[in-house]
Write a structure and sequence with these properties.
Elements lengths: L2 E3 L1 H7 L4 H8 L3 H9 L7 H11 L7 E3 L5
Antiparallel strand pairs: 1-2
Organism: Thalassobaculum litoreum DSM 18839
GO molecular function, one term: DNA binding
InterPro entries: Cro/C1-type_HTH, Lambda_DNA-bd_dom_sf
Length: 70
């Protein structure tokens, strides 16, 4: 998949644990963990907006595009 989730990097920069972020945005730790690992097929814009608001960042700070080399 050419989209990589870099949420862990932003959490480290903000010195915040995933558990704390999950509580603040009203998401289960399990669902946040799936998002962090990139094992989800999609994310709602509302969820992305809540994460960005809590981490004071832009969506591009959480996702990166790395094209497949074919």
């Amino acid at each position: 998949m050419p989209i990589t989730v870099t949420l862990d990097v932003m959490l480290a920069r903000r010195k915040m644990r995933g558990k704390e972020l999950a509580e603040r945005i009203g998401m289960t730790e399990q669902n946040l963990s799936l998002l962090r690992s990139g094992k989800v097929k999609g994310v709602r814009f509302e969820t992305l907006a809540r994460i960005c608001a809590e981490l004071d960042c832009q969506p591009a700070d959480l996702l990166s595009y790395e094209p497949d080399e074919a």
